[in-house]
Amino acid sequence: MVKNAAATPTTRMGEKDFVMERIFDAPRGLVFKAFSEPERVARWWAPKPYQVTDCQIDLRPGGVWQYAMCSPKGEKEWIKCVYSEVVEAERIVYTAAFVDENGHPIQGSPPDQRVTITFGDQGDQTIVALRFEFATAVDFKTTVDFGIIPGLTMALGNLDECLVEWQ
């Protein structure tokens, strides 16, 4: 059973970005591991009924996180993230793009996005803020229309369930 009283994230929308915040009943170190260890990320990052497969993480500036989002029919969408900043249990910054299985950009895919994730203490809980930034307002709208907000909301709900299990 999920014990998090703050199960609904808050989302603030800008012209070319949005910030989603969620509070978790788990220590910051464990929440950070959920974002940085491939076997943990694969358990929660995809909105149901999708699954993360082929998840590889090299958590360091210049390192790559690449994974496939697999549909129930077995279709895979590949995403490649390049880290620009990593501060243990505090901050992760990366740029994400849709790619082919070899890591090459795909023409016509949703626009690239810069993601900043911060982790903070709120009593015995951890507050996570995810900021997604886009080059233009059109890129932002395209990605929102693609369903990023409900998908991310569902993924964070998955994370909450995993954190209960991992404690």
What descriptors fit this protein?
globular; 40% strand; 167 residues; Alpha-D-Glucose-1,6-Bisphosphate, Chain A, domain 4; 8 strands; alpha+beta; 27% helix; 4 helices; disordered N terminus; eight-stranded antiparallel beta sheet
Could you walk me through the main structural features you see in this protein, from its secondary elements to its overall organization?
With 167 residues, this protein is α+β, with helices and mostly antiparallel strands. 27% of the residues lie in helices and 40% in strands. The chain contains four helices and eight strands; from the N terminus they run E-E-H-H-E-E-E-E-E-E-H-H. The chain has helices at residues 28-36, 38-44, 137-146, 148-166; strands at residues 10-13, 17-24, 51-57, 64-70, 76-87, 91-99, 113-122, 125-133. The protein has an eight-stranded antiparallel β-sheet. The longest helix has 19 residues, at 148-166.
Walk across the major sheet and give the strand order.
Answer: 1-2-8-7-6-5-4-3
Overall form: globular
Q: Total helix count?
A: 4
Order of helices and strands: EEHHEEEEEEHH
DSSP strand count: 8
